[in-house]
Amino acid sequence: MRTVIVLGMTLLFSACGSSTGTGGKLDVVAAENVYGDIAAQIGGPRVSVTSILTTPTADPHLFEPGTFSGLAVAGAKVVLQNGLGYDAFMARLENAAPSKNRDVVTVADVLGVHGKDANPHLWYDLPQLDRIATAISAAFARADPPHAGAYRRGLRRFERSLAPLRREVTTIRTRFHGAPVAYTEPVPGYLVSAAGLRNLAPDSFTRLIEEGTEPSASAFAAMSKLVSGHRIRVLLYNSQAVSPITARLRAAAQKAGIPVVPVSETLPPHLTFQQWQLDQARALAAALAR
Q: Which pTM value belongs to this model?
């Protein structure tokens, strides 16, 4: 399989010597379709975006890329990745096809987020979305200088389009500031913080769930007491990476009459990034209002 990938990459390099690829468009690869959608909105018709992680039912932490992903990265002029170990597979793809003409944007580096305990779900950090989008636009301008103005205009359009999401999160913060909630793993952690809510879920539970490890009996008991004791208003539940333990918590919350709000790590089909995040924010607001 490695021989096939290398040969394919060699052929692709020979066809991609200019700053733009097929049809005169800038070839862009995003590790996650979240960043891919943002990139497509900023770049518009000037870019051709390939997203590697696209399946909403897949666990991103267990993802293994195939030959197509390697070929896409080999021919890309701009690569967008999350960092913090979330998409560690990207380093393997990039190292398999080194290129001095490839601009790699690592969102964790852009935001200065580091450390093994950092929450990697950076696209949920609403206050930082402008910085993420600006870094993407700047990478496009470096790779394709003649169209830098178009990328700046795309950036401004994207920033304006975030207004409904910002208003919804501000409304939650105003109406429910300090309300106690819990999540099964830190996927919506940045959203919870931006909305001014208090997450009571213990790290001893959420971090292990995120890592695919079974929490200790005491950690599960502490999480269960939040539900049975009605100490939280809402349970935010990662619907993309379900385990028997998190399913038990969801069932317990539903039985106790505590609203459960599903969240996901990957952008669902047929939605823009803004629509997806706004839908989730509205669902959280409705749950808190119950």
A: 0.91
